[in-house]
């Protein structure tokens, strides 16, 4: 009992003093992690806690584990499996297998971090603490939030039931449903093949239309194209946010007779009659229109996870509220965030998370040393717009929608080489560079490719 009380007191003292004591000290090995069992919960203290072991969280934890050593960084992640989700576009088109996109979580998380195989269920940033699903209380000096997005399939009436019961309804956004896409594409003989884009921010905003192009190509190769209407119903009013790439995509949809219906938002699926109901977003009377389908690829509405949305960490729109350049939280200076769950006004991609990680690690290291953030994120993001099984438009741009192309060629053109990058080079960069906290995006390559002279403006 005496030991427990002493230990508990030390937890309080270690923690309450540590932020101040550490400023300028930078000697993390002096921080002692202690744990003790209480009647109802377990209290652990870490120098750094990372929430989420996806692209951004894994990369960040890998870097700081190297810097701080064993036992000082905890990563909270409930999933047994890590997925390279970017590959799911190719899985949906039958060009890769789901297995190629997945690794056991234990094999990608850094060995020097403590993996707490649970969800964070409550954030208490005023007290530098959070609670996990088993009721464990974790205290930290520094918190990094990288909890990704929640897929809200249930916000579309009938969609979950349709995904579970109708073989012709699929979704590349979920490990369970992405393997339905290719068989469903192959099975279509005639009728409407419908692809949707929801009325919320989503991860990889290009992915809902990449599968349109791949699907259309599959129909052509199978000889069924003439009997199938390929329809892309999107909530947006443009094909792509950056005009340079949107122009190419408009040409492609015109040339390949893909019908695009803007401002159409999927609100209901009726698997029994194979009908999909769309809200017409520009209708003042809230009108809807119904399409019959013989194939439906649904991209679900998305949000930050509920537990993040209900925490003091978010802005009014429910996104973790960080400074768009430093990635430091606007209210809690010992909290940083990166990736899809943030308010960063750029396209939510793993490529963006890689660049963000590069900035975050410098800035968080500076803050740990009692200094000001030194690096600034420019909004870099990238979207390999696969337009066929050997073609890709590699979109790269910043916060202002200015292209930031890595290669000294016009990347708005469909290219075989960019497909090879997407299918073969990027997975290597992801698993062997990003997840190990080494790859920080292509800024260095871009400089080299443009002979250090800044990129060519197209
Ligand atoms: C079909 C598809 C195609 C894509 N294509 C591309 C592409 O071509 N290029 C590209 O760059 N990006 C692409 N992306 C997007 C990319 O996968 C994401 O942007 C990237 O994974 C974001 O990283 P993240 O760390 O923010 O989130 P994630 O990688 O999603 O990781 C979030 C992690 O947080 C965990 N988590 C959630 N809630 C909690 C909690 N309460 N407690 C603890 N842990 C929690 C989750 O289990 C998950 O492991 C694509 C995505 C999809 C689905």
From TrEMBL:
Q: What class of enzyme is it?
A: oxidoreductase
Q: Identify which cofactors the protein needs according to its UniProt entry.
A: FAD
What is this enzyme's catalytic activity, as reactions?
A: a quinone + hydrogen sulfide + glutathione + H(+) = S-sulfanylglutathione + a quinol; ubiquinone-10 + hydrogen sulfide + sulfite + 2 H(+) = ubiquinol-10 + thiosulfate; ubiquinone-10 + hydrogen sulfide + glutathione + H(+) = S-sulfanylglutathione + ubiquinol-10
Give the EC number. Answer: 1.8.5.8
Annotated localization = Mitochondrion
Q: Does the keyword Repeat apply?
A: no
GO terms (molecular function) for this protein are: FAD binding; glutathione-dependent sulfide quinone oxidoreductase activity; quinone binding; sulfide:quinone oxidoreductase activity
The FAD/NAD(P)-binding domain sits at: 46-161
Q: What are the alphabetically sorted keywords of the record?
A: FAD, Flavoprotein, Mitochondrion, Oxidoreductase, Quinone, Transit peptide
Q: What is one GO cellular-component annotation here? A: mitochondrion
One GO BP annotation here? Answer: sulfide oxidation, using sulfide:quinone oxidoreductase
**One Pfam family name from the record?**
Pyr_redox_2
Known role: Catalyzes the oxidation of hydrogen sulfide with the help of a quinone, such as ubiquinone-10, giving rise to thiosulfate and ultimately to sulfane (molecular sulfur) atoms. Requires an additional electron acceptor; can use sulfite, sulfide or cyanide (in vitro). It is believed the in vivo electron acceptor is glutathione.
Q: What family is this?
A: Belongs to the SQRD family.
What is this protein's record name? Sulfide:quinone oxidoreductase, mitochondrial
Give the species this sequence originates from.
Littorina saxatilis
Q: What is the lineage of its organism?
A: Eukaryota, Metazoa, Spiralia, Lophotrochozoa, Mollusca
